[in-house]
Amino acid sequence: MTTTTNPLIRPDEILDLGEYERRRDTIRKSAMQARALRRIHLGPNATIAFENRETILYQIHEMCRAERLAKPDQVAHEIETYAELLPSSRELAGTLLIEFPEKEERDQRLRELLGLEDHLRIDVDGVRSKAVFDKRQIDVERLSSVQFLRFALSDEQRQALAEGKNVILLADHVGYRHETKLPPEIVQALSDDLTEIESVERG
User: pTM for the full model?
Assistant: First the structure.
């Protein structure tokens, strides 16, 4: 079966293994900075790391390096797999990490947090969007500690992001009620990401 490459990541953006190895330190440093800029804590036990093209390109390169993938169909498969985590120009996308240090507490709390997918929102200048979780990760017995999610954005919300208006992440689950305001530098980074994705979508 032929793998269809995601249009937001081109195969020619993936360096061959030798070239990536030579440039890896520089690429890794920049990607880690991009990740840190897009990571926000929501209460003491939840973190959302928003993704952009740079962080996804880095993950693809690292997987190809680790698995020694060089054939075009292998690289195309990795692009298709990881590009699922990319936002479009009309949404934010990221990874939700739920962390409890002790195993017993973790198991109990993840069971108690079932239904969180209905209680996580982003508020952009007073207009809220509900998080959309990947249904493939929803368990009937307990919440997975790693969740991929998206927040659809209206034109009004996108404009508010571009203008640096207030952005708040909030959870109102009975077992986890927290909210946090995104600092201006993260708001700016997310707005820039939407602009970049829109440019790529237009070709």
Answer: 0.89
Torsion angle of alpha carbons 182, 183, 186, 191, nearest 10°?
80
Check: CB of residue 129 under 8 Å from CB of residue 151: yes
**18 in the Ramachandran plot: left (φ > 0), alpha (ψ -120 to 50) or beta?**
alpha
pLDDT along the chain (203 residues), means of 10: 60 96 98 97 97 96 96 94 90 95 90 94 97 85 90 97 97 96 97 94 84
Q: Cα–Cα distance between 42 and 179 in angstroms, integer?
A: 6
What CA–CA distance (Å, rounded) separates 86 from 88?
Answer: 7
CA separation for the pair 160, 170 (Å, rounded): 18
39-41: strand order across its sheet = 39-41, 46-50, 91-98, 146-152, 132-133
Going by DSSP bridges, is the β-strand pair 132-133/91-98 parallel, antiparallel, or unpaired? Answer: unpaired
pLDDT of residue 59: 96
The domain spans of the chain are 11-202
Helix (H) or strand (E) holding 57: helix 53-67
